[in-house]
Amino acid sequence: MSSESLTSERILDTAEGVLRRHGIAKTTVVDVARALGVSHGSIYRHFPTKVSLHDAVAARWLARVADPLADIAHEDGPADERLRRWLRTLAEAKRRKVLDDPELFHTYHTLAEQARGVVDEHVRELTDQLTRIIRDGAAQGRYRVASPEAAARGVFDATVRFHHPAHSREWGHPGVDADFDVVVTMIQSALAASGAEGGERESGV
Amino acid sequence: MSSESLTSERILDTAEGVLRRHGIAKTTVVDVARALGVSHGSIYRHFPTKVSLHDAVAARWLARVADPLADIAHEDGPADERLRRWLRTLAEAKRRKVLDDPELFHTYHTLAEQARGVVDEHVRELTDQLTRIIRDGAAQGRYRVASPEAAARGVFDATVRFHHPAHSREWGHPGVDADFDVVVTMIQSALAASGAEGGERESGV
DNA sequence: GTGCTGACAAAAATCAAAATCTGTCATTTG
DNA sequence: CAAATGACAGATTTTGATTTTTGTCAGCAC
User: Fold this and answer.
1) Does residue B100 register a pLDDT over 80?
2) Who among A155, A189, A196 is closest to B185 (CB)?
3) Does residue A167 sit within a domain?
4) What's the mean pLDDT in A132-145?
5) Which CATH number goes with the domain that contains B23?
6) In this structure, is residue B203 part of a structural domain?
7) Cβ of A22 less than 7 A from strand D
């Protein structure tokens, strides 16, 4: 128990386990300390408040979502295939999480809800990845966009129903896969065609 | 007070007012009855449960959103202009509601949250309107889509961040207008170009 | 001295008793 | 007799007293 020294990492590992078992509402700092075999005062040496501990747990959870996506963003295959795969991987990861363990997903969702700053950073990271893919697509001559950053944000926004936890209730419904495909195909179509960002050249007449 | 006879309409009008003033949590059937100057038993003559009363209020609220949109859907101008205006009207209506009276908006959101069936019907109505516009666009030769229904659903989904209450917190942020324009432009672009629905003809490659 | 403890005050959560509300229905009213 | 009432049982919410938790910090231990 007291063999290893008490690090932030170790606290986070344990906190995650306790959170997983008890849910967010019933987890206290004292619980986490007890699970570690230390006094709760020690935890405040590593995290100034309980909320900051929650934020850190949320950040790790979000990182586990973002990491596999980063790989896709940094490959150098055809951008359109990577974009589709990136979006599907994101949606699929989220979907699996809810369907596998709704309880735990709800815990993390609540956690993330409160950790506004952490989520903002996460979204920035994801849109940066999208920007990279779209920029690659432009370099490859597959996409034609005025602003890759704006287009990336647009892609992220347009797919919000398939990755934002607020819509998780619908992810189990029968039609979602088809809905997802429609939206992704629209996105591909838009990026491949004229400017995906408010340039002067309006599509259609 | 007791001059008019007690109709469902009159109950709904009053319920809406009480809800507006007290919020959903603090509004009881007794409150509504008191505001009407009748006994609460009378209300159960028109609505079987408190929930059904809530549903009816939610339905009226949603109808007030859908009605102006129906006008746009039934015009016969150029579809792309109507689509853009339809989407902006929807987003703008929602946005005004939150910014004007967040308290009241929250009340209605909670109401709608619970009135699942009512919301489903509302969404069906809206996507039907979109289908009509897109079908018109196809007839006008402006849009090329394999399935107007699927495309309509795609358009609705892709703009979810701008009209779904779960995202209302962001509607006050500075960048949203630009974000909205990007997404709408992408949509126009996709509809104007190749099939907006999973046909065999993939965009790109 | 660095890292941890545990007692403490203030804040928040819990619990059970009391009050209120929902939904029913036999009775009253017009 | 159609429409409304109000007393009632069971469910839910409120209230306020009690317990638990958070976050601090003086001091202990290594």
Assistant:
1) yes
2) A196
3) yes
4) 96
5) 1.10.10.60
6) no
7) no
Does residue B197 contact residue B150 with C-beta atoms inside 8 Å?
A: yes
pLDDT 10s digits, B149-200: 999 999 999 999 999 999 999 999 999 999 999 999 999 999 996 444 443 3
B205 within some domain: no
* pLDDT of B201 strictly over 60: no
Question: What is the distance in angstroms between the Cα of A16 and the nearest Cα belonging to chain B?
Answer: 27
| φ and ψ of A144, to 5 deg | -130, 105
Structure-token pair, residue B154: 């795609």
Per-residue model confidence (pLDDT) at position A200: 35
Pairwise CA distance, residues A78 & A61, whole Å: 29
Which residue is closest, via its CA, to the C1' of D5?
A: B39
Interface subset of B 131-150, CB within 8 angstroms of A: 142-143, 150
What residues make up the domain containing B178? 61-192
| Count of the separate structural domains present in chain A | 2
User: Quick check: A197 and B184 in contact, CB under 8 A?
Assistant: no
Q: Say yes or no: B112 and B159 in one domain.
A: yes
Q: CA of B30 vs C1' of D5, distance in Å?
A: 13
In a domain, residue A3? The reply is no
Residues B92 and B29 in one domain: no
Minimal Cα–Cα distance from B8 to chain A, Å?
A: 33
Chain B residue at shortest CA distance from A77: B205
Question: Same domain for A65 and A37?
Answer: no
How many angstroms is C1' of D12 away from CA of B25?
A: 12
Are residues B5 and B88 both part of a single domain?
A: no
Identify the closest residue of chain B to A145 by CA–CA distance.
B186
In chain B, pLDDT over 90 holds for what percent of residues? 84
* Same-domain status, B77 and B145: yes
**Token pair belonging to A77:** 């295959």
Q: Are residues A71 and A12 in the same domain?
A: no
Rounded to the nearest angstrom, the gap between the alpha carbon of residue B55 and the centroid of all alpha carbons in its chain is 14
User: What does the block give as tokens for B46?
Assistant: 């028109």
Same structural domain, B42 and B74: no
Q: Which two tokens stand for residue B173?
A: 């942020």
Same domain, A20 and A87: no
Give the phi and the psi of residue A86 in degrees, each rounded to 5. -60, -50
